[in-house]
Write a structure and sequence with these properties.
By secondary structure, the chain is an alpha/beta fold. It has one domain: Spore Coat Polysaccharide Biosynthesis Protein SpsA, Chain A (Alpha-Beta Complex), CATH 3.90.550.10. Helix content is 40%, strand content 19%. The strands form two sheets. Strands 1, 2, 3, 4, 5, 6, 8 and 9 form an eight-stranded mixed beta sheet that branches. The chain has a two-stranded parallel ribbon with strand order 7-10.
């Protein structure tokens, strides 16, 4: 059963015996991610392991005087909500600044990072593995990623195949960690140090930056630890696919040289 620790709302002297084993940090775009975040919380609510978790939602992108009404609902279902009207920071992606903001509020080192629109079919083995490998000395870890909400069509399937083939080649042939935003775990202090030095400005920088700094990174391709990221933004069409292929090749070349 999911045991949520909401340290942010308890006095310090009452928190001493209730620290979590890990924090789960999720950026939530108030302009469209809140319903998806509720589904993610439902997935995490099926966690049935021994670890105590602090779920931190960083709700952002809304007018200063109009915080989303759903914030109270998210808190009632067990999440710690950090509400920030604008999370933007020059030179950094919005997603990575939101993750850093949530990590600064976390109370423990072990930190699991998801996107609001991802789904976690098997939360128990996934969370248990993340906590275990970070406790064992890894600086970061990640697992396989699939898709949900994929549009139909052969071109969409081909694009997904090319995407995963490229990730496999980088990881297996070139030794490049293919951490992506919807699913990875980090040790809080090292991530924030690299972020503050400008070495992590986007999720794609996380793996290479941690590896270059000497941190060990673990990967698991186990089927019961896959996370599903939303494919709703993919669109079918041969011209879209033909435009995507050279962009993907150029991206992989840049990552290889980096």
């Amino acid at each position: 059963m999911l045991r949520v620790v909401r340290n942010a709302v308890s006095p310090a002297d009452e928190r001493s015996t209730s620290y979590p084993d890990a924090s789960i940090v999720v950026p939530v775009n108030a302009q469209g991610d809140i319903p998806a975040a509720v589904e993610l919380l439902s997935d995490l609510g099926r966690y049935d392991g021994p670890h105590r978790l602090d779920i931190i939602l960083v709700v952002n992108n809304y007018p200063d005087d109009q915080p989303p009404r759903e914030i109270d609902d998210l808190r009632r279902v067990g999440a710690r909500v950090i509400a920030v009207p604008s999370i933007r920071q020059s030179g950094y992606s919005v997603g990575i600044t939101a993750r850093a903001h949530g990590l600064r509020a976390a109370d423990v080192e072990a930190s699991i990072l998801f996107d609001a629109d991802c789904r976690v079919p098997h939360p128990t083995p996934l969370v248990n593995w993340y906590v275990s490998v970070l406790a064992g000395g890894a600086a970061a870890a990640y697992t396989g990623v699939g898709h949900h909400e994929l549009p139909s069509g052969v071109t969409v399937r081909l694009r997904v195949f090319i995407h995963h083939a490229g990730r496999w080649a980088k990881r297996v042939l070139f030794g490049i960690p293919t951490i992506r935003g919807s699913n990875y775990a980090v040790m809080r202090t090292q991530f924030l140090e690299l972020f503050d030095r400008g070495l992590i400005v986007h999720d794609m920088n996380v793996g290479p930056a941690i590896k270059s700094s000497g941190g060990r990174i673990e990967y698991s391709g186990a089927a019961d630890m896959r996370v599903l990221t939303s494919g709703r933004f993919l669109r079918p069409g041969w011209m879209r696919l033909l435009r995507y292929i050279p962009k993907r090749i150029a991206y992989n070349v840049r990552m290889r040289r980096g």
